[in-house]
Design a protein that fits this description.
The complex is a heterodimer of chains A (254) and B (318). With 254 residues, chain A is of the alpha/beta class. Chain A is built from nine helices and twelve strands. Helices cover 37% and strands 27% of the residues of chain A. The longest helix of chain B has 32 residues, at 75-106. Classes of the chains: A alpha/beta (254), B mainly alpha (318). The complex binds adenosine-5'-triphosphate and magnesium ion.
Chain lengths: 254, 318
Protein backbone atom coordinates (compact mmCIF):
# COMPACT_ATOMS: atom_id res chain seq x y z
CA UNK A 1 0.00 0.00 0.00
CA UNK A 2 1.44 3.38 -0.96
CA UNK A 3 -0.31 5.77 1.37
CA UNK A 4 0.76 9.36 1.91
CA UNK A 5 4.34 9.96 3.05
CA UNK A 6 3.13 12.24 5.84
CA UNK A 7 -0.19 11.84 7.59
CA UNK A 8 -1.05 14.48 10.18
CA UNK A 9 -4.25 14.05 12.16
CA UNK A 10 -5.85 16.51 14.62
CA UNK A 11 -2.54 17.78 15.91
CA UNK A 12 -2.68 20.23 18.80
CA UNK A 13 0.24 21.96 20.43
CA UNK A 14 0.39 24.45 23.30
CA UNK A 15 3.23 26.63 24.51
CA UNK A 16 2.19 27.29 28.08
CA UNK A 17 -1.39 28.48 27.90
CA UNK A 18 -1.18 29.51 24.23
CA UNK A 19 -2.51 26.94 21.79
CA UNK A 20 -0.33 27.35 18.70
CA UNK A 21 -1.68 24.43 16.66
CA UNK A 22 -5.40 23.93 17.05
CA UNK A 23 -6.26 20.72 15.29
CA UNK A 24 -4.25 20.33 12.08
CA UNK A 25 -4.93 17.47 9.68
CA UNK A 26 -2.91 17.19 6.52
CA UNK A 27 -1.53 14.64 4.06
CA UNK A 28 1.63 14.91 2.01
CA UNK A 29 1.48 12.39 -0.83
CA UNK A 30 4.62 10.39 -1.55
CA UNK A 31 6.69 12.36 -4.04
CA UNK A 32 4.50 15.40 -3.57
CA UNK A 33 5.37 18.96 -2.61
CA UNK A 34 3.14 20.70 -0.08
CA UNK A 35 3.71 24.40 0.46
CA UNK A 36 2.61 25.89 3.77
CA UNK A 37 1.98 29.61 3.90
CA UNK A 38 0.58 31.89 6.56
CA UNK A 39 1.24 35.03 8.57
CA UNK A 40 4.02 35.27 11.15
CA UNK A 41 3.22 33.40 14.35
CA UNK A 42 0.52 31.27 12.76
CA UNK A 43 2.32 28.05 13.72
CA UNK A 44 3.98 27.01 10.44
CA UNK A 45 7.41 26.36 11.96
CA UNK A 46 5.86 24.60 14.91
CA UNK A 47 3.94 22.25 12.61
CA UNK A 48 7.10 21.39 10.68
CA UNK A 49 9.08 20.86 13.88
CA UNK A 50 6.41 18.51 15.20
CA UNK A 51 6.85 16.29 12.15
CA UNK A 52 10.45 15.44 13.07
CA UNK A 53 9.81 15.64 16.78
CA UNK A 54 11.87 18.73 17.54
CA UNK A 55 8.62 19.62 19.33
CA UNK A 56 6.30 17.20 21.10
CA UNK A 57 2.59 17.39 20.38
CA UNK A 58 -0.16 17.55 22.99
CA UNK A 59 -2.69 15.53 21.03
CA UNK A 60 -3.21 14.04 17.59
CA UNK A 61 -1.05 11.69 15.55
CA UNK A 62 1.67 12.13 12.94
CA UNK A 63 2.84 9.30 10.68
CA UNK A 64 5.79 9.48 8.37
CA UNK A 65 6.03 6.62 5.87
CA UNK A 66 3.60 4.67 8.03
CA UNK A 67 5.62 5.10 11.25
CA UNK A 68 3.95 6.88 14.13
CA UNK A 69 6.27 9.73 15.12
CA UNK A 70 7.48 9.73 18.71
CA UNK A 71 5.44 6.79 19.98
CA UNK A 72 4.89 3.10 19.58
CA UNK A 73 1.34 1.82 19.68
CA UNK A 74 1.08 -1.42 21.61
CA UNK A 75 -2.40 -2.72 22.32
CA UNK A 76 -4.42 0.40 23.00
CA UNK A 77 -1.60 2.22 24.79
CA UNK A 78 1.00 4.61 23.43
CA UNK A 79 4.58 4.18 24.61
CA UNK A 80 7.25 6.84 24.26
CA UNK A 81 9.95 5.77 21.85
CA UNK A 82 13.42 5.28 23.25
CA UNK A 83 15.98 7.97 22.27
CA UNK A 84 17.70 5.62 19.81
CA UNK A 85 14.38 4.96 18.06
CA UNK A 86 13.67 8.68 17.82
CA UNK A 87 17.09 9.20 16.24
CA UNK A 88 16.32 6.47 13.73
CA UNK A 89 13.04 8.19 12.81
CA UNK A 90 14.76 11.55 12.40
CA UNK A 91 17.38 10.07 10.09
CA UNK A 92 14.71 9.55 7.46
CA UNK A 93 13.53 13.17 7.65
CA UNK A 94 15.74 15.98 6.41
CA UNK A 95 15.26 19.49 7.72
CA UNK A 96 16.45 22.79 6.33
CA UNK A 97 16.29 25.83 8.57
CA UNK A 98 15.70 29.49 7.88
CA UNK A 99 19.07 30.36 9.43
CA UNK A 100 20.98 27.40 7.87
CA UNK A 101 22.58 26.25 11.14
CA UNK A 102 25.64 24.83 9.43
CA UNK A 103 28.31 23.63 11.86
CA UNK A 104 30.68 26.62 11.89
CA UNK A 105 33.73 24.62 12.95
CA UNK A 106 33.51 22.31 9.94
CA UNK A 107 34.08 22.97 6.25
CA UNK A 108 31.29 22.67 3.69
CA UNK A 109 32.37 19.13 2.84
CA UNK A 110 32.76 18.16 6.51
CA UNK A 111 29.27 19.49 7.19
CA UNK A 112 27.85 17.20 4.51
CA UNK A 113 29.94 14.25 5.74
CA UNK A 114 29.05 14.73 9.41
CA UNK A 115 25.76 12.81 9.44
CA UNK A 116 27.15 10.01 7.30
CA UNK A 117 30.19 9.49 9.51
CA UNK A 118 28.66 10.07 12.94
CA UNK A 119 25.12 8.77 12.54
CA UNK A 120 25.38 6.21 9.77
CA UNK A 121 28.89 5.08 10.66
CA UNK A 122 30.06 5.31 7.05
CA UNK A 123 33.84 5.36 6.58
CA UNK A 124 35.44 8.76 6.03
CA UNK A 125 36.59 7.89 2.51
CA UNK A 126 33.13 6.82 1.36
CA UNK A 127 31.54 9.81 3.09
CA UNK A 128 33.96 12.15 1.34
CA UNK A 129 32.99 10.72 -2.03
CA UNK A 130 29.28 11.00 -1.32
CA UNK A 131 29.73 14.49 0.14
CA UNK A 132 31.59 15.68 -2.93
CA UNK A 133 28.82 14.28 -5.15
CA UNK A 134 26.18 16.14 -3.16
CA UNK A 135 28.12 19.41 -3.18
CA UNK A 136 28.36 19.01 -6.94
CA UNK A 137 24.63 18.48 -7.11
CA UNK A 138 23.99 21.81 -5.34
CA UNK A 139 26.66 23.48 -7.48
CA UNK A 140 29.29 23.98 -4.76
CA UNK A 141 32.00 21.46 -5.60
CA UNK A 142 34.55 24.28 -5.69
CA UNK A 143 33.63 25.42 -2.16
CA UNK A 144 34.21 22.09 -0.40
CA UNK A 145 37.06 23.38 1.77
CA UNK A 146 35.37 26.63 2.79
CA UNK A 147 34.05 27.22 6.29
CA UNK A 148 30.45 28.46 6.55
CA UNK A 149 31.64 31.94 7.57
CA UNK A 150 33.40 32.15 4.20
CA UNK A 151 30.25 31.37 2.21
CA UNK A 152 27.36 33.58 1.16
CA UNK A 153 23.93 32.93 2.64
CA UNK A 154 22.72 31.23 -0.53
CA UNK A 155 25.78 28.98 -0.61
CA UNK A 156 25.36 28.14 3.07
CA UNK A 157 21.74 27.16 2.50
CA UNK A 158 22.71 24.94 -0.42
CA UNK A 159 25.32 23.23 1.75
CA UNK A 160 22.64 22.78 4.40
CA UNK A 161 20.40 21.09 1.81
CA UNK A 162 23.28 18.82 0.78
CA UNK A 163 23.91 17.99 4.44
CA UNK A 164 20.29 16.84 4.82
CA UNK A 165 20.32 14.91 1.55
CA UNK A 166 23.39 12.98 2.68
CA UNK A 167 21.17 11.02 5.07
CA UNK A 168 19.04 9.78 2.13
CA UNK A 169 15.81 11.11 3.64
CA UNK A 170 12.39 10.04 2.40
CA UNK A 171 11.02 13.44 3.34
CA UNK A 172 12.49 16.93 3.36
CA UNK A 173 11.16 19.72 5.56
CA UNK A 174 12.00 23.30 4.60
CA UNK A 175 11.31 26.10 7.09
CA UNK A 176 11.43 29.38 5.16
CA UNK A 177 14.69 28.37 3.46
CA UNK A 178 15.04 31.66 1.58
CA UNK A 179 13.71 34.16 4.12
CA UNK A 180 17.13 35.02 5.54
CA UNK A 181 18.67 35.56 2.11
CA UNK A 182 19.34 38.71 0.12
CA UNK A 183 16.90 38.85 -2.82
CA UNK A 184 19.55 38.07 -5.43
CA UNK A 185 20.48 34.83 -3.63
CA UNK A 186 16.96 33.44 -3.35
CA UNK A 187 16.81 31.95 -6.83
CA UNK A 188 19.92 29.79 -6.50
CA UNK A 189 18.37 28.04 -3.50
CA UNK A 190 14.96 27.72 -5.12
CA UNK A 191 16.64 26.20 -8.19
CA UNK A 192 18.15 23.44 -6.04
CA UNK A 193 14.75 22.82 -4.43
CA UNK A 194 13.08 22.68 -7.84
CA UNK A 195 15.56 20.02 -8.97
CA UNK A 196 14.93 18.11 -5.79
CA UNK A 197 11.15 18.19 -6.33
CA UNK A 198 11.63 17.10 -9.94
CA UNK A 199 13.69 14.14 -8.73
CA UNK A 200 10.65 12.89 -6.82
CA UNK A 201 11.52 13.97 -3.28
CA UNK A 202 8.58 14.38 -0.91
CA UNK A 203 8.75 17.93 0.45
CA UNK A 204 6.96 20.07 3.01
CA UNK A 205 7.93 23.68 2.39
CA UNK A 206 7.08 26.67 4.55
CA UNK A 207 7.67 29.64 2.29
CA UNK A 208 6.66 33.11 1.31
CA UNK A 209 7.79 32.50 -2.29
CA UNK A 210 4.41 32.28 -4.02
CA UNK A 211 6.08 31.86 -7.41
CA UNK A 212 7.77 28.69 -6.16
CA UNK A 213 4.52 27.43 -4.62
CA UNK A 214 2.63 28.02 -7.85
CA UNK A 215 5.24 26.39 -10.02
CA UNK A 216 6.43 23.44 -7.91
CA UNK A 217 3.74 22.88 -5.29
CA UNK A 218 1.21 20.10 -5.65
CA UNK A 219 -0.76 21.51 -2.75
CA UNK A 220 -0.92 24.80 -0.97
CA UNK A 221 -2.00 25.05 2.65
CA UNK A 222 -2.81 28.38 4.26
CA UNK A 223 -2.51 28.37 8.04
CA UNK A 224 -3.73 31.17 10.25
CA UNK A 225 -4.12 31.11 14.01
CA UNK A 226 -3.10 27.46 14.24
CA UNK A 227 -5.76 26.11 11.90
CA UNK A 228 -5.78 25.36 8.18
CA UNK A 229 -7.94 28.05 6.65
CA UNK A 230 -7.68 27.10 3.01
CA UNK A 231 -6.03 24.41 0.91
CA UNK A 232 -5.97 23.25 -2.66
CA UNK A 233 -4.08 23.36 -5.91
CA UNK A 234 -1.64 26.30 -5.62
CA UNK A 235 -2.45 27.73 -9.03
CA UNK A 236 -6.19 27.73 -8.30
CA UNK A 237 -5.90 28.91 -4.72
CA UNK A 238 -3.54 31.75 -5.60
CA UNK A 239 -5.61 32.79 -8.61
CA UNK A 240 -8.88 32.81 -6.71
CA UNK A 241 -8.50 32.71 -2.92
CA UNK A 242 -11.83 32.01 -1.27
CA UNK A 243 -11.15 33.30 2.22
CA UNK A 244 -10.82 36.97 3.07
CA UNK A 245 -7.88 36.23 5.41
CA UNK A 246 -5.89 34.56 2.63
CA UNK A 247 -6.70 37.42 0.28
CA UNK A 248 -5.42 39.91 2.85
CA UNK A 249 -2.29 37.80 3.43
CA UNK A 250 -1.53 37.52 -0.27
CA UNK A 251 -2.02 41.24 -0.62
CA UNK A 252 0.82 41.69 1.86
CA UNK A 253 3.35 39.17 0.52
CA UNK A 254 2.87 39.65 -3.23
CA UNK B 1 33.92 77.95 -0.36
CA UNK B 2 33.97 76.92 -4.00
CA UNK B 3 32.76 80.33 -5.15
CA UNK B 4 36.08 82.13 -4.45
CA UNK B 5 38.37 81.13 -7.33
CA UNK B 6 40.60 84.20 -7.40
CA UNK B 7 41.17 84.61 -3.68
CA UNK B 8 44.84 84.97 -2.85
CA UNK B 9 46.25 82.96 0.06
CA UNK B 10 44.06 79.87 -0.58
CA UNK B 11 46.29 77.85 -2.87
CA UNK B 12 44.41 74.63 -2.07
CA UNK B 13 41.25 75.63 -3.84
CA UNK B 14 42.41 75.71 -7.46
CA UNK B 15 44.49 72.57 -6.91
CA UNK B 16 41.43 70.69 -5.64
CA UNK B 17 39.36 71.91 -8.56
CA UNK B 18 41.91 70.59 -11.03
CA UNK B 19 42.12 67.13 -9.49
CA UNK B 20 38.92 65.69 -10.83
CA UNK B 21 40.24 64.68 -14.23
CA UNK B 22 41.46 61.17 -13.65
CA UNK B 23 39.75 60.30 -10.35
CA UNK B 24 41.07 60.39 -6.79
CA UNK B 25 43.84 62.62 -5.54
CA UNK B 26 46.13 61.49 -2.75
CA UNK B 27 45.52 63.65 0.32
CA UNK B 28 47.85 62.49 3.10
CA UNK B 29 46.99 63.42 6.67
CA UNK B 30 50.16 64.50 8.47
CA UNK B 31 48.45 66.47 11.18
CA UNK B 32 50.34 67.70 14.24
CA UNK B 33 48.94 66.52 17.56
CA UNK B 34 48.37 69.07 20.32
CA UNK B 35 50.95 68.75 23.12
CA UNK B 36 49.94 66.57 26.08
CA UNK B 37 52.12 67.73 28.98
CA UNK B 38 50.13 65.72 31.56
CA UNK B 39 50.92 62.47 29.80
CA UNK B 40 54.62 63.34 29.42
CA UNK B 41 54.96 64.15 33.11
CA UNK B 42 53.18 60.92 34.10
CA UNK B 43 55.44 58.90 31.78
CA UNK B 44 58.54 60.59 33.19
CA UNK B 45 57.47 59.85 36.76
CA UNK B 46 56.70 56.22 35.91
CA UNK B 47 60.02 55.76 34.10
CA UNK B 48 61.93 57.31 36.97
CA UNK B 49 60.09 55.13 39.47
CA UNK B 50 60.90 51.95 37.55
CA UNK B 51 64.57 52.80 37.15
CA UNK B 52 64.90 53.73 40.80
CA UNK B 53 63.16 50.52 41.91
CA UNK B 54 65.37 48.42 39.66
CA UNK B 55 68.47 50.20 40.97
CA UNK B 56 67.60 49.65 44.64
CA UNK B 57 66.89 45.99 43.93
CA UNK B 58 70.06 45.36 41.94
CA UNK B 59 72.48 47.10 44.30
CA UNK B 60 70.73 45.86 47.46
CA UNK B 61 73.20 43.65 49.31
CA UNK B 62 70.48 42.02 51.37
CA UNK B 63 69.13 40.29 48.27
CA UNK B 64 72.18 38.03 47.80
CA UNK B 65 72.10 37.70 44.04
CA UNK B 66 74.90 35.16 44.20
CA UNK B 67 72.75 32.89 46.37
CA UNK B 68 69.83 33.30 44.04
CA UNK B 69 72.02 32.35 41.09
CA UNK B 70 73.41 29.36 42.94
CA UNK B 71 70.01 27.94 43.89
CA UNK B 72 68.10 28.68 40.65
CA UNK B 73 69.26 25.38 39.15
CA UNK B 74 69.57 23.49 42.44
CA UNK B 75 68.42 19.89 42.18
CA UNK B 76 65.88 20.25 44.98
CA UNK B 77 64.44 23.41 43.41
CA UNK B 78 64.12 21.71 40.03
CA UNK B 79 62.45 18.76 41.74
CA UNK B 80 59.95 21.14 43.32
CA UNK B 81 59.42 22.76 39.94
CA UNK B 82 58.59 19.38 38.44
CA UNK B 83 56.08 18.63 41.22
CA UNK B 84 54.46 22.03 40.63
CA UNK B 85 54.10 21.27 36.93
CA UNK B 86 52.69 17.82 37.61
CA UNK B 87 50.21 19.12 40.17
CA UNK B 88 49.07 21.87 37.80
CA UNK B 89 48.65 19.70 34.73
CA UNK B 90 46.98 16.79 36.54
CA UNK B 91 44.65 18.88 38.65
CA UNK B 92 43.62 20.97 35.64
CA UNK B 93 42.98 17.84 33.56
CA UNK B 94 40.92 16.18 36.28
CA UNK B 95 39.26 19.50 37.08
CA UNK B 96 38.25 19.98 33.45
CA UNK B 97 36.80 16.47 33.29
CA UNK B 98 34.88 17.05 36.54
CA UNK B 99 33.76 20.44 35.26
CA UNK B 100 32.40 19.02 32.00
CA UNK B 101 30.61 16.28 33.94
CA UNK B 102 29.11 18.75 36.41
CA UNK B 103 28.11 21.17 33.63
CA UNK B 104 26.41 18.44 31.59
CA UNK B 105 24.61 17.29 34.74
CA UNK B 106 23.55 20.86 35.43
CA UNK B 107 22.04 21.20 31.96
CA UNK B 108 20.33 17.81 32.03
CA UNK B 109 16.62 17.25 32.41
CA UNK B 110 16.91 15.30 35.64
CA UNK B 111 16.38 17.35 38.83
CA UNK B 112 18.45 14.82 40.83
CA UNK B 113 21.48 15.27 38.54
CA UNK B 114 21.01 19.03 38.52
CA UNK B 115 20.81 19.05 42.31
CA UNK B 116 23.92 16.91 42.73
CA UNK B 117 25.87 19.20 40.43
CA UNK B 118 24.64 22.33 42.19
CA UNK B 119 25.55 20.86 45.58
CA UNK B 120 29.07 20.10 44.33
CA UNK B 121 29.78 23.61 43.02
CA UNK B 122 28.07 25.23 46.00
CA UNK B 123 30.16 23.34 48.54
CA UNK B 124 33.57 23.49 46.89
CA UNK B 125 33.29 27.11 45.84
CA UNK B 126 31.91 28.03 49.22
CA UNK B 127 34.78 26.74 51.35
CA UNK B 128 38.41 27.92 51.24
CA UNK B 129 40.83 25.84 49.22
CA UNK B 130 43.27 25.96 52.12
CA UNK B 131 40.71 24.30 54.38
CA UNK B 132 39.95 21.68 51.72
CA UNK B 133 43.64 20.84 51.32
CA UNK B 134 44.13 20.35 55.05
CA UNK B 135 40.93 18.33 55.14
CA UNK B 136 42.01 15.93 52.36
CA UNK B 137 45.40 15.53 54.00
CA UNK B 138 43.70 14.49 57.24
CA UNK B 139 40.92 12.45 55.64
CA UNK B 140 42.23 9.41 57.52
CA UNK B 141 40.79 10.91 60.70
CA UNK B 142 37.29 10.61 59.19
CA UNK B 143 37.65 7.54 56.97
CA UNK B 144 40.53 5.38 58.24
CA UNK B 145 40.17 3.02 55.27
CA UNK B 146 38.68 2.95 51.77
CA UNK B 147 37.36 -0.16 50.11
CA UNK B 148 35.45 -1.54 47.18
CA UNK B 149 32.60 -3.85 48.06
CA UNK B 150 29.00 -3.92 49.15
CA UNK B 151 27.83 -0.45 50.21
CA UNK B 152 26.54 0.36 53.68
CA UNK B 153 29.04 -1.67 55.72
CA UNK B 154 28.78 -4.82 53.61
CA UNK B 155 31.79 -7.06 52.94
CA UNK B 156 34.73 -5.44 51.12
CA UNK B 157 36.56 -6.83 48.10
CA UNK B 158 39.64 -4.66 48.44
CA UNK B 159 40.58 -2.21 51.11
CA UNK B 160 43.26 0.46 51.49
CA UNK B 161 44.42 2.30 54.57
CA UNK B 162 44.00 6.06 54.29
CA UNK B 163 47.46 6.57 55.74
CA UNK B 164 49.02 4.70 52.84
CA UNK B 165 46.82 6.21 50.15
CA UNK B 166 46.93 9.84 51.23
CA UNK B 167 50.40 11.23 50.64
CA UNK B 168 50.92 14.99 50.47
CA UNK B 169 50.86 14.62 46.68
CA UNK B 170 47.55 12.71 46.45
CA UNK B 171 45.97 14.99 49.04
CA UNK B 172 47.13 18.02 47.06
CA UNK B 173 45.86 16.54 43.81
CA UNK B 174 42.47 15.70 45.34
CA UNK B 175 42.10 19.14 46.85
CA UNK B 176 43.20 21.10 43.81
CA UNK B 177 41.35 18.99 41.22
CA UNK B 178 38.03 18.80 43.04
CA UNK B 179 38.12 22.49 43.85
CA UNK B 180 39.07 23.34 40.28
CA UNK B 181 36.24 21.17 38.94
CA UNK B 182 33.73 23.34 40.74
CA UNK B 183 35.03 26.46 38.99
CA UNK B 184 35.43 24.70 35.65
CA UNK B 185 31.80 23.59 35.87
CA UNK B 186 30.70 27.22 35.68
CA UNK B 187 33.08 27.96 32.82
CA UNK B 188 31.97 24.91 30.83
CA UNK B 189 28.32 25.66 31.50
CA UNK B 190 28.71 29.19 30.18
CA UNK B 191 30.49 27.75 27.12
CA UNK B 192 27.74 25.23 26.40
CA UNK B 193 25.06 27.86 26.82
CA UNK B 194 26.85 30.14 24.38
CA UNK B 195 26.26 27.67 21.53
CA UNK B 196 23.31 28.63 19.34
CA UNK B 197 20.39 26.27 20.15
CA UNK B 198 19.91 25.96 16.38
CA UNK B 199 23.15 23.97 16.26
CA UNK B 200 21.72 21.36 18.58
CA UNK B 201 18.52 21.19 16.55
CA UNK B 202 20.37 20.85 13.26
CA UNK B 203 22.38 17.99 14.73
CA UNK B 204 19.29 16.32 16.18
CA UNK B 205 17.51 16.67 12.86
CA UNK B 206 20.33 14.64 11.30
CA UNK B 207 19.48 11.89 13.77
CA UNK B 208 22.36 12.35 16.21
CA UNK B 209 21.97 11.04 19.75
CA UNK B 210 22.36 13.38 22.71
CA UNK B 211 25.89 12.19 23.27
CA UNK B 212 26.84 12.68 19.63
CA UNK B 213 25.32 16.16 19.63
CA UNK B 214 27.34 17.06 22.69
CA UNK B 215 30.61 15.56 21.53
CA UNK B 216 30.55 16.48 17.85
CA UNK B 217 28.66 19.77 17.77
CA UNK B 218 28.16 21.48 21.11
CA UNK B 219 31.46 20.92 22.95
CA UNK B 220 33.77 21.80 20.03
CA UNK B 221 31.94 25.11 19.64
CA UNK B 222 31.73 25.70 23.39
CA UNK B 223 35.51 25.24 23.50
CA UNK B 224 36.01 28.63 21.89
CA UNK B 225 34.31 30.19 24.89
CA UNK B 226 35.76 27.73 27.41
CA UNK B 227 39.44 27.91 26.40
CA UNK B 228 40.34 31.52 27.31
CA UNK B 229 39.09 31.40 30.92
CA UNK B 230 40.52 27.88 31.24
CA UNK B 231 43.89 29.27 30.22
CA UNK B 232 43.53 31.85 32.96
CA UNK B 233 42.60 29.11 35.43
CA UNK B 234 45.67 27.16 34.37
CA UNK B 235 47.97 30.13 34.91
CA UNK B 236 46.30 30.81 38.20
CA UNK B 237 46.67 27.13 39.16
CA UNK B 238 50.45 27.30 38.60
CA UNK B 239 50.55 29.72 41.50
CA UNK B 240 47.73 28.20 43.55
CA UNK B 241 49.76 25.00 43.88
CA UNK B 242 51.96 26.96 46.30
CA UNK B 243 49.13 26.60 48.85
CA UNK B 244 50.02 22.95 49.01
CA UNK B 245 53.02 24.01 51.09
CA UNK B 246 50.74 23.87 54.14
CA UNK B 247 50.65 20.09 53.79
CA UNK B 248 54.29 19.88 52.72
CA UNK B 249 53.45 19.10 49.12
CA UNK B 250 57.09 19.05 47.94
CA UNK B 251 56.35 21.61 45.23
CA UNK B 252 58.34 24.73 44.44
CA UNK B 253 57.41 26.82 47.46
CA UNK B 254 57.74 23.92 49.92
CA UNK B 255 61.26 23.02 48.78
CA UNK B 256 62.25 26.70 48.80
CA UNK B 257 61.02 26.96 52.37
CA UNK B 258 62.87 23.81 53.34
CA UNK B 259 66.07 25.24 51.93
CA UNK B 260 65.76 28.61 53.69
CA UNK B 261 64.99 26.91 56.98
CA UNK B 262 68.50 25.45 56.62
CA UNK B 263 70.47 28.37 55.17
CA UNK B 264 68.32 31.29 56.40
CA UNK B 265 68.30 32.86 52.90
CA UNK B 266 64.58 33.58 53.16
CA UNK B 267 64.31 36.40 50.61
CA UNK B 268 66.75 34.84 48.16
CA UNK B 269 64.85 31.54 48.15
CA UNK B 270 61.52 33.31 47.73
CA UNK B 271 62.98 35.13 44.74
CA UNK B 272 64.24 31.83 43.32
CA UNK B 273 60.71 30.42 43.60
CA UNK B 274 59.20 33.58 42.13
CA UNK B 275 61.50 33.51 39.13
CA UNK B 276 60.36 29.99 38.35
CA UNK B 277 56.71 30.90 38.83
CA UNK B 278 57.12 33.78 36.39
CA UNK B 279 58.85 31.52 33.86
CA UNK B 280 56.02 28.99 34.15
CA UNK B 281 53.22 31.54 33.78
CA UNK B 282 54.96 33.20 30.84
CA UNK B 283 55.37 29.91 29.00
CA UNK B 284 51.75 29.07 29.81
CA UNK B 285 50.41 32.33 28.40
CA UNK B 286 52.29 31.82 25.16
CA UNK B 287 50.85 28.30 24.99
CA UNK B 288 47.40 29.72 25.69
CA UNK B 289 47.71 31.93 22.63
CA UNK B 290 48.40 28.97 20.34
CA UNK B 291 45.65 26.79 21.80
CA UNK B 292 43.14 29.59 21.37
CA UNK B 293 44.14 29.98 17.75
CA UNK B 294 43.58 26.26 17.18
CA UNK B 295 39.99 26.54 18.38
CA UNK B 296 39.33 29.57 16.21
CA UNK B 297 38.78 27.16 13.32
CA UNK B 298 35.94 28.31 11.11
CA UNK B 299 35.86 31.76 12.64
CA UNK B 300 38.37 33.44 10.37
CA UNK B 301 35.62 35.75 9.24
CA UNK B 302 36.23 37.89 12.33
CA UNK B 303 37.81 41.18 11.30
CA UNK B 304 41.60 41.16 11.69
CA UNK B 305 41.34 44.06 14.13
CA UNK B 306 39.16 42.04 16.52
CA UNK B 307 41.40 38.98 16.28
CA UNK B 308 44.48 41.05 17.01
CA UNK B 309 42.92 42.34 20.19
CA UNK B 310 42.26 38.78 21.33
CA UNK B 311 45.99 37.99 21.41
CA UNK B 312 47.76 37.78 24.77
CA UNK B 313 50.30 40.55 24.23
CA UNK B 314 48.12 43.21 22.67
CA UNK B 315 49.01 44.18 19.14
CA UNK B 316 51.25 41.35 17.96
CA UNK B 317 53.18 41.78 14.76
CA UNK B 318 52.44 38.32 13.35
N1 LIG C 1 9.57 27.37 22.12
C1 LIG C 1 8.51 28.20 22.20
N2 LIG C 1 8.05 28.61 23.40
C2 LIG C 1 6.99 29.43 23.49
N3 LIG C 1 6.32 29.92 22.45
C3 LIG C 1 6.72 29.55 21.22
C4 LIG C 1 7.83 28.69 21.03
N4 LIG C 1 8.01 28.50 19.71
C5 LIG C 1 7.04 29.22 19.10
N5 LIG C 1 6.27 29.86 20.00
C6 LIG C 1 5.10 30.69 19.69
O1 LIG C 1 4.23 29.93 18.89
C7 LIG C 1 3.65 30.74 17.89
C8 LIG C 1 3.87 30.11 16.54
O2 LIG C 1 5.24 30.12 16.26
P1 LIG C 1 5.83 29.60 14.90
O3 LIG C 1 7.29 29.80 14.98
O4 LIG C 1 5.32 28.24 14.63
O5 LIG C 1 5.20 30.62 13.87
P2 LIG C 1 5.50 30.77 12.33
O6 LIG C 1 4.21 30.60 11.63
O7 LIG C 1 6.61 29.88 11.94
O8 LIG C 1 5.94 32.29 12.23
P3 LIG C 1 7.10 32.95 11.37
O9 LIG C 1 6.54 33.19 10.01
O10 LIG C 1 7.38 34.22 12.10
O11 LIG C 1 8.26 32.03 11.38
C9 LIG C 1 4.26 32.11 18.03
O12 LIG C 1 3.32 32.92 18.72
C10 LIG C 1 5.46 31.89 18.87
O13 LIG C 1 5.70 33.01 19.69
MG1 LIG D 1 8.66 30.19 11.40
Amino acid sequence: MTGPMVKIRSVRKCFGSVEVLRGISLDVPTGGVVCVVGPSGSGKSTLLRCVNRLETIDSGRIWVDGDLIGYAERGDRLHHLRPAQLCAQRQGIGMVFQRFHLFPHRTALENVMEGLVVVKGVSKGVARGRGTELLERVGLADRAGHYPAQLSGGQQQRVAIARSLAMDPKLMLFDEPTSALDPELVQEVLAVMRDLAASGMTMMVVTHEMGFAREVGDDLVFIDGGVIVERGNPREVLAAPRHERLRAFLGQVL
Amino acid sequence: MTGTPGTPGTPGTPALAGAGADGERHLPIAAIRPPRPGRWIAAAVAAFGMVWLLYTVVVNENLHWDVIAAYLMDGRVLGGLWVTIQLTVLSMAIGLALGILAAVMQLSGSPVLRGASALYTWFFRGTPLLVQLIFWFNIGLVFPSFGLGVPFDGPKLVEWQANELITPFTAALLGLAINEGAYMAEIVRAGIRSVDPGQREAAEALGMSHRQVLRRVVLPQAMRVIIPPTGNQFISMLKTTSMVSVIAGAELLTVSQRIYLGNFEVIAMLIVASIWYIVLTTVASVGQHFVERRFERGHHALPARVRRNLRPFGKGSA
